[in-house]
Amino acid sequence: MEPTTPDEDGINFRTRKWVRPEDLNANGTLFGGSLLRWIDEEAAIYAILQLGNGKVVTKYISEINFVSSAQQGDLVEMGLRATRFGRTSLTMRAEVRNMITRQSILTIEKIVFVNLDADGQPLAHGYSTITYDRDRIPSSMTTA
Ligand SMILES: CC(C)(COP(=O)(O)OP(=O)(O)OC[C@H]1O[C@@H](n2cnc3c(N)ncnc32)[C@H](O)[C@@H]1OP(=O)(O)O)[C@@H](O)C(=O)NCCC(=O)NCCS
């Protein structure tokens, strides 16, 4: 992931995807399931980096608004922004847009991840602000 300048909503658009034939629906446009898989993975990585813990899970995804479509060969970019740090949770807002036209493809107002302990129980993470750095990368993920 490379850092980018946040848009007017404060969202950082980091990951880009190239819409391939296996990502298409019966209408020949981008399949919603592929988009959701991309977003869930992006949100997991974001939560790991914000909460400093590799053991985070998706708890809740709010209404998904498929604003417009994308075609095979299109370049799309995904963005996330933390909107609330709870005690054990992190809430994010997501947007996927066409990289060239910047037209919105999908928005999700609320994606909630929960920080877990070794037994899979909710664990207080202790953070309340967004980091734009890599200072919270879990030590278990770095080599000595
Ligand atoms: C994640 C899990 C351990 C949480 O257990 P739980 O009993 O709901 O735990 P809690 O009630 O203590 O809630 C934990 C946090 O989630 C939040 N939360 C719970 N339900 C929520 C909901 N419906 N919407 C938004 N946030 C919710 C709580 O507010 C709390 O956040 P906070 O500590 O920041 O206030 C449990 O629900 C679980 O294992 N779910 C399956 C997760 C999973 O496998 N996801 C992958 C997709 S299949």
CATH H-tier superfamily: Hotdog Thioesterase
What does the average pLDDT come to? 92
The top-level CATH class is Alpha Beta
Task: Look at the helices and sheets and give the structural class.
Answer: alpha+beta
Bound molecules: coenzyme A
- Please tell me the CATH architecture by its name: Roll
Could you spell the SSE succession in H and E letters?
A: EHEEEEE
**What is the rounded distance between the termini?**
22 Å
Number of helical elements = 1
Could you tell me the radius of gyration in angstroms?
16 Å
Helicity level, as a percent range?
A: 10-25%
Strand content: 25-35%
Q: How many β-strands, per DSSP? A: 6
Overall number of domains: 1
Oligomer kind: single chain
Shape: elongated
Briefly note the CATH topology name. Answer: Thiol Ester Dehydrase, Chain A
How would a crystallographer describe the biggest sheet? 6 strands, antiparallel
